[in-house]
Structure formats: C-alpha cells, structure tokens
Amino acid sequence: MAEANKSTRTRDDFERLPRHVAIIMDGNGRWAKKHKLAVARGHRQGTETLREIIRHTDDLGIEALSVYAFSTENWNRSPEEVAALMQLILDFFASEIDELERKNVRILILGDKSRLPEKQRETIIEAERRTAGNTGLHLNIALNYGGRDELVRCARELAEMVKAGELQAEDINEQTISDHLYTRGQPDVDLLIRTSGEMRLSNFLLYQCAYAEFLFPEVLWPDFTVHDYDDALLAFGGRERRFGKRLS
Ligand code: IPE
Ligand code: IPE
Ligand code: MG
Dihedral (C-alpha) 34, 40, 42, 45: value to the nearest 10 degrees? Predict the structure, then answer.
C-alpha cells in the first residue's frame, strides 16, 4: 500500500506548478462511516494522507502548502471528536517534527492559538520555533483558523497602528492587508483543493484565495493519494489564469 502511494513524478513532469497550494482536507467523517469505524479513526487515517502529501509537496519544490486542520467552527462538534482531533495534533507533531525540521520545512500555524489547550499550544509554538530558521517549504497548518477571524484581527491591528500614529489610513492598500495576515510574506494561493466533493470555502483563506484556481475531487481525504494530487497539479497547469485580462 505504501508503494501505491508513492509518486514517481518530479518537478520536470509539470509544465507549471502552483507556488502556493491550499487544501481543505475534508471527508474523514464519511470515510469512517463508510468503513463502519469511529470518526476518530477517520481523522487518524487523514493524518497518514497529510504526511504523504507534505512529502510530495516538498519533493516537488512547491513554495507553500496550507492545510485546513481545524476551523473556528469545528469547536461545535462533540467533545469526544474535538478531543480526538486535539490528540492528533500532539501525535502528528511528535511523529513528524524531526523529519520536517531536517527537510528544511518552515512550520507556521494559521489561527488563534489562545483557545487551544496548553499542551497543544506549547507543541505548536515549539514546532514553529524549531523550524523558524529554515528556508524550504512553508508548511502552514490552520488550527482554530477562520478567514473572517483573520480579517477582523488584521483590521484591529491596522486600527491600532493608525491610532498610535504609526500608519496613515490613506496608506492602507492591498499589500498592507496581506502583510498583516498569518501568511504574510508568502505568495497568494494559486490552487485550492477540497476533497470529498464539497464545493465551498468554509471560511478558509478568504483573502489569499482571491484568484486561486479551485479543484473539488470527489475522493474522501483519507483515500486521497499522491496520484490524485499529481492529477490536481496537472489540471492546474492546464487552467488559463486571466486575472481579469483579455488574453486573446
Ligand atoms: C475534515 O473531515 C476534517 C475536519 C473538519 C477536522 P470531516 O470530519 O469534516 O469529514 P466529513 O465532512 O464529516 O466527511
Ligand atoms: C472545513 O471542513 C474544515 C476543515 C477541513 C478543517 P468542515 O467539514 O468543517 O466544513 P463544513 O462544515 O462542511 O462547511
Ligand atoms: Mg467535513
């Protein structure tokens, strides 16, 4: 099975790769249901997929990968499911951090860390700290993330700066906003993939996805393979991105 989930494709097999890929990893619950397993098993299987997708993204030399792991709305799930997801955060970093650090990956958590339990908060801050000096793949993990929440924070930050006289209101432009988002310094999202056939953003990277290409493969996240990922990347290469211009 491990072999089936290895890609032989390299950067040269793609005419054009996205600089920044965002993934809404959806379908863990349906996968568990389909296999008559507890929902926590679905989430655990999902982290196996995530590991392979991170590896392949890094091998392809893509600049940034943002994955949606837990939304500000996911607190509304049962306490058991939330606890299982919180445990997976600890397990994921415990098993992956050494390899990620060694591979020069920079980990950044997108979202409000303050609402996370202390152990999880310490773990992710430590992962960010250990990889802060790295220069390779930007791996953004969205935890307690909401796109609207991010924009509200940005507005507050800018308002405080204006109040303190550090910024003139008329100097605020699109770049100023980008520079005050969690993803500051990174390119906008070029390709957004949401698995499981759902076609919505669910509050993910609202500002950064302004001109992203969208792909909605039907496959459930735990079943998503590196081959499905390659297919998505190839499909992206075939998209005509116009950015409002008339090209012909
Ligand atoms: C996505 O899988 C993972 C999280 C939201 C944490 P879901 O748990 O939403 O899977 P479905 O949508 O119920 O199948
Ligand atoms: C979005 O998926 C959040 C994550 C994948 C972490 P959801 O499954 O929570 O989104 P909705 O509720 O179907 O829109
Ligand atoms: Mg879902």
Answer: -150
Which atom of ligand 2 lies closest to the CA of 68?
A: 6
Mutate to test the pocket of ligand 2, among 23, 25, 26, 109 (most ligand atoms within 8 A of CB): 26
Which token pair is 208?
A: 């950064």
Q: Is 26 a catalytic residue?
A: yes
Q: Is the pLDDT of residue 53 over 80?
A: yes
Amino acid at 28: N
Active site residue 76: no
Which residues face 193 on adjacent strands? 23, 215
Q: Is 0.90 surpassed by the pTM of this model?
A: yes
pLDDT tens-digit readout, 66-98: 999 999 999 999 999 999 999 999 999 999 999
